[in-house]
Amino acid sequence: MTDYPTLTLNDDRQIPQLGFGTFKLENDAATRAVSTAIDVGYWLIDTAAVYENESGVGKGIGDWSDIFLQTKIWNDRQGHDETLKAFDESLKRLGREHVDMLLIHWPCPDKGKFVDTWKAFIELRKAGKAKSIGVSNFREDDLKRIVDATGVVPALNQIELHPTFQQREMRRVHEEMGVVTQSWSPLGQGEGLDQSAIQRIAEETGKPASAVIIAWHLQHGFSAIPKASSRDHIEANFAALDLELTEEQMAAIDALDSQDGRMGPDPSEFC
Ligand SMILES: NC(=O)c1ccc[n+]([C@@H]2O[C@H](COP(=O)([O-])OP(=O)(O)OC[C@H]3O[C@@H](n4cnc5c(N)ncnc54)[C@H](OP(=O)(O)O)[C@@H]3O)[C@@H](O)[C@H]2O)c1
C-alpha cells in the first residue's frame, strides 16, 4: 500500500482512504468490477449482505489477502445472536476468515436492537473475525447510545455525503468523537458530475469530473467509496489520487451544499 493515502482509525489500524463500492452489482458483475478495481490499484472494497454479491466480491478479490474488505449486517439480522449468525454467513459467502471492517448497516432506531448488535461486534473484534468495527447511517444520538452502553467508539461511520449533501453537523460529531467519516454515494450517484463548478474545475485540472469530486472528499479527510461498473469509470475515479485541488477549488465545491440534497433514505425512519 506504499504511497496510497490512508487514515488512522481510533483502534490504531490504517484504512485506505479511497475505496470501491459495489451496491447494485450482481455477483458476476461484482467479480469483474472488483478484480478490475484491484488491477487499477484500489485497496478497499465495500460490500454488504443486502447487496447479495458477497460471493462475487470474494471471487473478485481472490488471493489478494491484503485488500481492506468491508461488509455490513443487514437490518433484519440485528440483535446479538442473530448478528453472530449473519456474520458467519457473510464470511462463508466472502470465502474469508475475517473482514477488515464490519458495519451495522442502519441504526433502525425503532427496533431498539443496535446496542445488542454492537455488543456482538465487540466480541467479533476480540475474536479477530472483524479487525475493526464501525457503523453506517448512525446519527449523533445513536453513536452516543452505543458508546454510553459499551465504552467502545465506532472506528468509522459510513454516511451519505456528496457535494450537494455535505453533512457538516455529522462531520463535527465524528471529529469530536474520533470517528472516521466515510462517504457513501460520494458522486451523488453520478448525478452531480455536470454541475458547472465541477465541470469548470475538471477543465482547469484536465481530470475527469468524477475525480474532481473524489479529490474533494479525500482532501477533506474522508474515506470515499465510489461505485463504477466499467474500467473507464473505475480508472477515471482513481485519477483522484493524482489531483490536488486549490483552496479556491475546494471552496467552490463546499459552496454546492444544499439543505435538501439527501438522495437516500433518512436514518431516523428507514429500516
Ligand atoms: N451504507 C449505506 O447505506 C450505503 C448506501 C448507498 C451506497 N453505499 C455504498 O457506497 C457506494 C457508492 O455509492 P453509490 O453506488 O450509491 O453511488 P456513487 O458511487 O456516488 O455513484 C455511482 C454511480 O455513478 C456512476 N459513475 C461512477 N463513476 C463514474 C464516472 N467516472 N463517470 C460517470 N459516471 C460514473 C456509476 O455508473 P456505472 O456503474 O455505470 O459506472 C453509478 O451510476 C455503494 O456502491 C455502496 O458500496 C452504502
Description:
- This protein has 271 residues and is an alpha/beta fold.
- It has one domain (16-254): NADP-dependent oxidoreductase domain (TIM Barrel, Alpha-Beta Barrel).
- It is built from ten helices and ten strands.
- It has helices spanning 27-40, 54-61, 80-94, 114-126, 140-150, 168-177, 196-205, 209-219, 231-238, 247-254, and strands at residues 6-8, 14-16, 20-21, 44-46, 68-73, 99-104, 130-136, 156-160, 180-184, 223-224.
- The strands form two sheets. An eight-stranded parallel sheet has the order 3-4-5-6-7-8-9-10.
- Strand 3 (20-21), helix 1 (27-40) and strand 4 form a beta-alpha-beta unit.
- Helix 3 packs across helix 4 (114-126).
- The chain is globular and about 55 Å long.
- The chain starts with 5 loop residues before the first strand and ends in a 17-residue tail after the last helix.
- The model has no long low-confidence stretch (mean pLDDT 97).
- It binds NADP nicotinamide-adenine-dinucleotide phosphate (NAP).
What's the gist of this structure?
The protein is α/β, with parallel strands linked by helices and 271 residues long.
